[in-house]
Structure formats: C-alpha cells, structure tokens
Amino acid sequence: MVNCCGLVTVKNEQVPLKSIAVEVSVQGHVATVSSTLQYENQEQSPLEAIFVFPLPGEAAVCRFSAKIGQTEVVAEVQEKQKAQEQYDDALSSGQQAFLLEESDESPDVFKLSVGSLPPGEKASVSLDYVTELAVQADDGLRLCLPAVLNPRYQPQGSDSGSGGSAQVSSVPAGSVPYSLSLSAHVSSPHPISRVESNCPLDPLNYLNTEKTQATVSLAAGHQFDRDVELLLYYQDTHQPTAIVEAAQASAKPGSLMGDPVVMLSLYPEFPKDVMSSMTSHGEFLFVVDRSGSMECPMHLGSGSQDRIGSARDTLLLLLKSLPMGCYFNIIGFGSSYESFFSKSVEYSQKTLDEALQKVKEMRADMGGTEILQPLKHIYSQPCLPDQPRQLFLFTDGEVGNTKEVLDLVKTNAGSHRCFSFGIGEGASTALISGVAQQATGHAQFITGQDRMQPKAMQSLRFALQPAVVDISVKWNVPKEVSVTPLSPPIRVLFQGQRALLYAQLTGESSGDTEGSVTVKYSLAKQPVENQLSFILKPAEDTG
C-alpha cells in the first residue's frame, strides 16, 4: 500500500525531489494543470521507482510523460492487463518503461511505474490534468494544488507525530531542498475582477483592456507549509457563458478530441427577495429503510453507531426543523412497508410529539430491502393542493433492482422532489445519487457521526427554497453544423449550485463563423432568458 505520494521506490521511500513547475490555464470554470517534477537518484544503486498521484475527485489525467537522462516516454492509454505485460517485458530486457494506472482500491489515485533510475541520474515527470473549479459561497472559483505538486516540508528532526505542521512554518528561507514555481493564465468571457490566494502572489497582470485575460504567479520563496489555493473572481459571474475549445490537430474528425467542444456554464443568481420567500408549505414524506442490513455498523472499527441509529438521529433532527403549516408522514420499509399515519397529517406540536416517540422506537426489523412497493404506494396517493411533495429517502442502498427503482422515480419526477441519504460506508452511489438526480433533489452520504447535522439541514434548506426550474437550452448553429450534447440535461438548480454543460460541434460552415445558444428558465414563477453567441472555430489550439 503506497501511502507516500510523488516519486517513491518500490520500498515506499521518497526519491529526492529537486523542483516543481506548474502552469495553470483557466478557461472560465475549468482549469488545465500542467506540472513538471524533477527528481534525482542520490543512491549508489539503481532505483525501481513509482510515481503516485492522488487525483482530485473531479479531475481527469489527460497527458503523462517521463524523461530519464535523454530517454523520453509519453504514456498512452491501454487496457490494464496488456499494459502490465508490456511493462514487465520491457523491464526484463533492461529497457526503461513507464506504466500509468488507476489504482484498484480507489479511482482517485494514479500510480505510474517509471522503471529503473540509474545512480546519480535525474528523472523529470510531466503530468497534465483537467478539472472543473469548485464554486465557493462568495462566488469565487477555487483551485487547490494536490499534495504531489505541493508536498509539505518537514525539517529533519522535527517531531512529525504530534501535529508536526505547527513547526513547519518556521523553516528558514532557502533551506527547503526543492522549489515550486506556479504561473496561471486566466481567460474568461467576463472581466476578471481579482485573483486571491492564501500564499503570496505577484501582482495580477492583465493582457488586454477588456480584462478578460490575465496572468498571475506565485511569489518566489514558497515555504511548502500550507495548501496552495487560488480563488478567481469574475465580474457578472451569474451571467451564463459559452466557451469553445478547438479540436486537437492530431485527432481525426468525428472522434471526441477531433471536433470542437462548447462548454456552457449556468450559475443563476437568486435575488434576496426570492431567497427570503422560503416556502413554509410542503408535504414531507420520510421513507426509512428498516431492513436487516441497517443493523450493520456505519463503518468498520470499534464504537461505530449502527446505520438505523444514524437514520433515526437524522430523522429526529429533520422532524424538529420542519416549518409550521406543512404536512408530513413517515414510512418504514423492509420486506413490506408501514406508515406512521394513514395519510399525511398537518405538522403541529401534537403530531410532532407522536412522531418523535415512534421514531425513537424504530428498529431494523423488517427483513429484506423492498423499496419499490412503498414508492408505488406513495405515487398512488394524490398530491395535496399547494403543498409540493418532498420525498426524503434513507437507505444503505443494498437493493438488487436499482434500475427499476430509478425508472419509477423518473416517471413520477413531475410530481415531487427526492432528497436521498446514503447511510453507512459503501452505500450504493448508483441508487442514492440516481433517485436524487431523477427527481431533481439532492443526495447526501452520511458515513459517520460528525457530518450528519449540516448535511441534513442543507437538504432541508434545498427542499424549502425556491429553485430554478423549466431549464431549456436551444442551440442555434448554421445548418452544416450539428450539436451533440455530451452532458445529461439539467432540470433544476438550487441556490449556490453551478451547472456545466458540454456539447460537441460537428461539421463546418462555409459562411457563418458564429453560433448562439438560448438559455431559458424560471425562478419564483418569473421567466428568465439569456442568449449567448460563440465562435464556431477558435483560432488557436486552446488545450
């Protein structure tokens, strides 16, 4: 098990790092990070080395190359087994070889064997990945460098066991044996207001008068005592944007990389008066998995709460937080299902006390996980007038008929929203995320005691607030050009959520060089419409 990252030997010891150079290219809401790391074998004997790269969850590696001495190898994507055989063959015949693979345990770790590094020889490793930037509460877009590209420096002899990071910051300048240079090129359809960082930056340098392109660099002398994060702020950040990226010259037209791709960003603004109109209406249906598997502990290890206990705690919190004037009911299911009340009741102190008492007595004693029947029962009940139906589903997600469940939820998506809670480690993401996606709600995963409360309250806030609905996207391009969506359509956006939609542009127009897209949606019953134009064929290779 490799727990170090960067270039390590087969015995899991770090190969000395000399320098890191990172170039970031940002297009609107997406960044491409290109990095080059220089290492040196300071041992007397050759080292068999492995490059380990924990990938940020929303990132994809798009290029990898490594150079030992004068030999450069560029990685190509291959089926795992075949790649392993080729690598073993090359090594046994004394050639340098590289093998890049996603780790079996976790899809977010890339391991690359770089083969044999002779004594005193330098190795340079180049890696490019592309990632969507996370939106922060203050509308900034955040890019954080992973640990490989910003390793914490622990001076010799400092006690790394007891919160060693406290002493890291007192490293005298110049004593860190490696260096980091980072430069970023930012381009956006809207002007760039500012770039901030938790590390010292050189001043922002605008490349044009519209301020839509700029460069910024990390100031020299980075101490490796903290994460490097960049926060980008654009003007008119809530206006949608469309950016086209050119096809790769080497790829053949008709393939994914061989045709241009357009990215549409939607990050709607929710005016204060809309947000203050939090609804106090709603029919809240809490559907709780009481099958035998819910008796299992939340995670491996001693002292772990059982899943039904976690579901009970989450449910008690939600029940106490409902708005007066709404309606609610609780349905437990296993091999069969049972409701607390014969139909949804008005939320009052009396009905709340009655429900709280019943929830406290709830056990995982209902056999198998038959989720289809209770859902069919709910959908057969008429919706209450002016009380939008909100379904809260709690399950450890161990069902065999996920597709059937998702199809049923999708068929009834027009009549309700679904907020799902995956309870315990290993809850099925296909089921939990799937039902929320089909019924335009939100999925949460609760794996331990610590994060339950904010997650439950976030979902309840989403359920009570107005959302952007009736989203439609219409592409207007010359008749020789066709647009193929690469992203599933979006049906709802909550406050603070951003959606990126990708589409491929195929074919070429002789006359027109522009296309446009019309985005319509409604918020608090008010229609909003935006039209954006974009260039069908960007001039330079944009990455």
From TrEMBL:
Residues 1-131 form the VIT domain. InterPro entries: VIT (IPR013694), VWF_A (IPR002035), vWFA_dom_sf (IPR036465). Residues 283-464 form the VWFA domain. SMART domains: VIT, VWA. Pfam families: VIT (PF08487), VWA_3 (PF13768). This is von Willebrand factor A domain-containing protein 5A isoform X6. It comes from Salmo salar (Atlantic salmon).
